[in-house]
Each structure stands twice: as C-alpha cells, then as structure tokens.
Amino acid sequence: MKNPQLNKHGELQHLLTTEGLPVQIMRDILDRASTFLDVTDVHEIRKVPMLHGKSVFNVFFENSTRTRTTFEIAAKRLSADVVNLNIGSSSTSKGETLLDTVGNLCAMHADMFVVRHAQSGAAHFIARHVAPDVHVINAGDGRHAHPTQALLDMFTIRHYKKEFHNLRVAIVGDVLHSRVARSQIHALTTLGVPEVRVIAPKTLLPTMVENLGVQVYHDMAQGLTDVDVVLMLRLQNERMQGAALPSAQEYFKYYGLTEEKLAHARPDAIVMHPGPMNRGIEIDSSVADGAHSVILSQVTFGIAVRMAVMSMLAGNK
Amino acid sequence: MNIQISNGRLIDPKNRIDAVCDVYISAGRIAALGATPAGFVIEKVIDATGLIVAPGLIDLAARLREPGYEYKATLESEMNAAVAGGITSLACPPDTDPPLDEPGLVEMLKHRARNLNQAHVYPVGALTTALKGQELTEMAELVDAGCVAFSQADAPLIDTRVLLRAMQYAATFGFGVWLRPQDSFLAKEGVAHDGEVATRCGLAAIPSCAETIALATMLALAQETGAKLHICRLSSAAGVELIRAAKRQGLAVTCDVSMNHVHLSERDIGFFDPNCHLIPPLRSLADRAALRAGLLDGTINAICSDHTPVDEDAKQLPFAEAEAGATGLELLLPLVLKWAQQENITLSEALAKSTLQSAQILGLDAGHLSIGAAADICVFDPEMYWKVESSALNSQGKNTPFTGLEVQGKVRYTLVDGQLVYQG
After folding, report:
1. Measured distance CA(B424)–CA(B407) in Å, rounded
2. The complex's ipTM?
3. How far, in Å, CA of A103 to CA of A97, rounded?
4. CATH number of domain containing A46
5. What is the rounded distance in angstroms from the CA atom of residue B341 to the CA atom of residue B335?
6. Is B194 on the interface with A (CB under 8 A)?
7. Residues spanned by the domain of A256
8. What is d(CA A196, CA A212) in angstroms, rounded to the nearest whole number?
9. Which of A196, B89, B103, B346 could bridge B58 with an S-S bond, Cβ 3.0-4.6 Å?
C-alpha cells in the first residue's frame, strides 16, 4: 500500500501521522527545527523568508486556540500569509460537506492546509482530495494522530537527553482517547527508544496496545521506575461520565504525577505535557512548575518544529 | 417459451449433479434434463458450451432501498444488478423508510417488484413496529402480504422481554426470526473491530463480545421459545463457536455470513478506507479464519451479499462518518467462486451456500434444478476474468472494498421462471 504522506520521490508530501514516517525524514525535521532556534538563546526563534508568497490555511473543524496559534506563529516566522478558518462554526454547520469545503479552499489557492478535525482519519481523507500541489499538515484528527506534537516532543527529548537509543520513556494517562499518545509511540519506536511504557488503568488503554511496541503498566510506582522521560497526557472531564473512571480525585491519587511518584524515575528525568494541563487531576502543580518540568520549552520548540515541517513541505513538489 | 440450454455443465447441489447435460424449460419450469423430451418444440436455444448452468443465486440480504431511500438506490437499478449477478431470488431486510412493518408497504414492494419481472423479492418484515423494539408487528398479516420472516435489521432490540415475546409469537405460527446479534451498549459509537487496527487508527471500537453476548441471549430465547431462529451476518470466531455448540446440542438454528467477511479483515481498512466501514465490522484474520472454518463444517449455512447501496456523498467522508455498507449483488457469485478456489472445495459445495442452503433458510422450494422446479437459472462463464470497476456496476451503489480486484466468473444468462431476464 502506498504511503499516503510521501510523494513519488519518497519525500514528504503531507504530514499526516508519525506512523510509517521514515526515520531519516523524522531526523531531518528535528535537525531543521534546531536551525530556527537562536544559537545563543534556544528560546528565541528567528524570522526567515522561506515561505514568502505562500499561503497557509489553518483549517480547524474543532476549536483549539493553542495549536492554531503556534501554527500561525510558525507560518508567520516563515513569512507566509496565514488565513485562519474556524470551520466548526461556519460551513459544515450550514450543511456544506467536508469535500465541498476542501474544494472551496483549494480554489482560494492555498499552498498548505493545517487541519484539525474531530474524526480519526479526517486528515488522510482531506489529503486524498486536495489538489496535487497542496500540502496537508495534520494538526490532530480524532484519536488517531497529532504528528507535530509528537515531533516537538521528540525535539524536546533530544534537546535534553541528546540520544534516543538509551532511554526509557513512560506515557501516562488516557492513551485510549489520545492522538498525542499514538503519535508519540510511533515516533519513539521509530527513533529507536528501546523501552516505551504506557501507564494507565485498563479503561484508558486500547485493546492490544502492546502491539504498538509498548510495555503496559497499571501501577505508577512500577511504571515510573528508572524512566528518563515522563510524557503526561491530558485527561478529559467527560471520561467520568463514560464510566471510564470513578472520579478525578481517585484518578489523581493513583495516576496523577506527584513529586512522590516522580521520585521513582531517574534523578535527571524530564516531565512533559502537551497542554493544556489539568493541575491537580493528572499532574500536581509542584511537578508542573518544578525542576524536572520542561513543559514551557515544549511550547517554544513546537514553533520551531512546525516551521521545520512547513518549510520542508514547501520545498517538496 | 420452450428453451433448451445446451452443452452446459450442469451443477445442481441438491440432486448431486455435476455433468454436461442439456436443460429443457417449458412453461417456466424445468421440463427435462439430458435428452429432448418427446413432443418438445424448441423455440430458443441458449448455447452454454464451456459455461456452467447452476440454480439461480438466492441472496439472504439485499437492501433495495425502497421505500424511502430512492436517492441511494431504486428497485429498478438493484433488480438489474441482481439478475446481472445471477441472483434470481433475494430477501430484503425491513430497514426501509418507513420500515416494512405494515402489510400495505409489503404488498406495494411485492407489486413493484413483480411488475419489474426480474428476480423474486422476498421481504423480511419488521419484528417490531417501526423497528423500535417495543411493540410487535402484525406478523400474520405481514406474512399474508408476502413476508417470509421477521427481523430487526440493524436496529437494536434492547428489551429482552420484548425479544422473548416476539420469538414466542413468531413461534406460534412457525415464522422465522432473523436477528443480527449485537449488544447495542457495547457497540455504541463503534465503527471498527476492537483490535489492533482500531487501536492504531484511533477508531471507536466494537468488541467481539458485543456479538457473543447478544448471540447467547438469542440462542437461549430460541431454546426457550422454540422459535425458528436465523442468525444474520456472523462476524466473530467466538460467535461461530457459540453457534457450533448450539447446533451440537440440537438447536435448530441457522446462520449466514456476508461475502465481505469471508474475504476481508480489519487490515483492509488500511488508511481509513470508508469502503471497509461495514456492519458488523470487519474483524481480525483469526475471526475470518473461524468464519471460513464454520462455513466448511456447516456451522454457517449460507453466504449472502449483504448488499447495501450507499450514495456517493454519504461515503465521501472520514471513516466513522461515512455511511456503512457496500454494494454486493454483482459480486456474490465471483466471491463465492473465489472462496471455493481458495478452500479447494467443489463448485457444487460452494454454490450450495448461496442457492440451496439459502432457499432452505427462506423456506422455499428453490435453489435446485429438479424436474418440475421453477426455472430460476444462472448460466456463467467460470473462466472469465474481470476487474471490479464501480462505473461498470448496474447497482446504483458504487462503493465496494473489492474495487480494482480481478475476479473470476461472469454471468452470461439469468433466467427467472424460465424467462431470460439478463444476458451479458
């Protein structure tokens, strides 16, 4: 089966998922991202003219101020023209089909779509139907994938840990409903992390998750023992209604990341979170704001990684 | 008209015939096999040299979409598709709009179908009013109007007591109850099998136990009520095992599987192919192997097309939003033949699964070519290869997971009641 995100030269045509993304492309994205960071202060990002004259459409069928903003900043630092569309509140609610919306946006001469949609597979669907010269970046589709988030996480891990081949990484929380977790797992295993763990109650883990190449833990103390990286996931409030969990309090007690639980990890472990955080539900404030946390670095690096993806796509015809 | 089908290889599972043998048809019935009967004036000859002459296919599940969903398909288009697929009889589920829960609707459908003069249409009536799972339909009246059995189609029947009553009532008259087992709570919002593909793709899942829990309930109620139970579209290995055990214990239950589930698995979803969004979901390779084993040992009686024409707009959506279902009438024969080839079984054994066996489930004296039987016949070229292309299908439903597949076996002539209704 043809990999839908590569063109016939094996270059990146769309970024839809980290699954099946060649390791060299993944490394190229991370390397390119580091060129956008200021050499003296990694938290400063340069402005470059690489996408001058190009238009990037942020097409969000599901609201997300944060992700949309980081894509917008990334595109503007590349000197692109940016159009933001919150489709959730316009066309589709008037009965326009997704296909019509995509057709209309193509007719507006977009060079690149950044797409978020509540349905798994929506980005693949859109990529199948755009004009051949348009690039699609998946900014999150249902529970399926959020590749730029995973790539910025990989960038952050590499920044602090230098290598992947000697790491133990734990992903904690609602893996079942998480597109971030799926993309992280594929990215980590592709980059050669030898041990990826998931820690969650059984109600928050998908069937046969171990087939993705992870080890399953239900106990935080065991799962966090000697890990180098802790990737926290956001817990949606609706999980309590769906009978997946009894209460936020009980969840925090057993699966919330506290300093006490984090003490099982390696002394130099880093803690990450894709945001927005639920303090006191999946993570304690003392950890979120503590010495192990690199959560704010993730945000800055996220802009550089998105710049890398956009500029790489724009260079591939 | 008096017709001679000459030089064809006659395959009739019921009468255990597999030999080159001429067939003589008169007054819509099989008049003779072999030699020309005395006084038989041949008015038309169908040269079947190199072709197979078999009973017309009998499909246990074909949605014709009338009334109510004419934008998806019409009786005209789907009846054309049926005879082009060598299907001479078909049972249609009651999930039309309105559902087939009133005699008038059934009479209208039968009347419209009869006027088209193609395949025989056997409506399966709604088991409960509006398929809501609350009140029983007028089953006896519906049978008088032409229904052959009763079903909930894919609509849930949550109240077990209603199901018990429905089966008791149907059993009073000896009517068949056709049910697709699925626990609606466990299947809620699900669009794919709860396995590695749904996990990888992040699709909401339906576990196999959604099937087995409902199936165990149905089997227990059949035991309790003595109702003639037919299980539709089995999908899981555990389901096959339950049916096998029930049959071993002497329960008179029958069961079918869709051709899609005989050939495909969850893996065919690939990169979210909406054509593989089916009901029930395509399950694992192990489930598919168990379904095939169930067909071979007789646990599963029949293969149906589960023909579900969907309009293009409803399919051109992300996987979960895309309407479930695939067109199938024109693919049933080649996919049964493909299965036979893969399993290395005789054509007679394979064709029985979509002719004789389905007729028995429907309670029809059909699906065979005995002398005196209705001349419902499919004449096909077993060697001819063709590529499945949406645009070439007669059905108004153009979506199938088999698009692009090279299949073997092409219908050349279809006869219903001795009339040539299709020639390809």
Report:
1. 16
2. 0.93
3. 10
4. 3.40.50.1370
5. 10
6. yes
7. 147-298
8. 10
9. B89
| Torsion sign across C-alpha atoms B150, B355, B353, B338 | negative
Check whether residue A129 and residue A172 sit in a common domain.
no
For residue A116, what are its two tokens?
């978020």
**Cα(B208)–Cα(B211) distance, integer angstroms:** 5
Return the CATH fold of B3-53+374-383+408-423: Urease, subunit C; domain 1 (2.30.40)
How far is the C-alpha of A205 from the C-alpha of B376, rounded, in Å?
A: 53
Domain spanning B55-362: which CATH class is it, in words?
alpha beta
CB-based contact B192:B203 (threshold 8 Å): yes
- Whether pLDDT at A140 is above 60: yes
Report the residue from A19, A120, A208 with minimal CB separation from B319. A120
Residue A170 lies in a domain: yes
For the stretch B160-215, pLDDT in tens is 999 999 999 999 999 999 999 999 999 999 999 999 999 999 999 999 999 999 99
What pLDDT is recorded for position A80? Answer: 96
**Distance from C-alpha of B161 to C-alpha of B421, rounded to nearest angstrom:** 45
Regarding whether A110 and A209 lie in a shared domain, the answer is no
- Total-model pTM: 0.95
Give the torsion sign (CA, A188, A258, A66, A115): positive
- The answer to whether the CB atoms of B195 and A212 lie below 8 A apart is no
**Rounded Cα distance, A86 and A211, in Å:** 36
CA of B24 to nearest chain A CA: how many angstroms apart?
50
* Upper half-sphere CA count for residue A34 (Cβ side, 13 Å): 14
- Do residue B196 and residue A145 have CB atoms under 8 angstroms apart? no
**pLDDT category of residue A46 using cuts at 50, 70 and 90:** confident
> Are A310 and A278 in a shared domain?
no
Q: Is A72 in the same domain as A82?
A: yes
Residues of B annotated as catalytic are: 306
Measure CA B82 to chain center.
11
Contacts of A121 in chain B (CB under 8 A): 201, 203, 271-272, 318-320
Long-range contacts of B100-103 (CB under 8 A, 24+ apart): B100/B124, B100/B125, B100/B126, B100/B142, B100/B147, B101/B125, B101/B126, B101/B128, B101/B129, B101/B130, B101/B131, B101/B137, B101/B142, B102/B137, B102/B138, B102/B142, B103/B138, B103/B141, B103/B142, B103/B144, B103/B145
Per CATH, B3-53+374-383+408-423 and B55-362 having the same topology is answered no
Q: Using CB atoms, which residue from A4, A121, A207 is nearest to B318?
A: A121
Q: What is the tally of structural domains in chain A? A: 2
Decide the pairing of beta strands B406-416 and B377-387: antiparallel
- Going from the C-alpha of B268 to that of each of A279, B169, B199, B285, B386, the distances in angstroms are 41, 41, 14, 10, 21
Say yes or no: A157 and A116 in one domain: no
A94 falls in which pLDDT band (50, 70, 90)? low
Tokens of B8: 């064809």
CA atoms within 13 A on the CB side of A82: 16
What is the tens place of the pLDDT at every residue in B274-307? Answer: 999 999 999 999 999 999 999 999 999 999 999 9
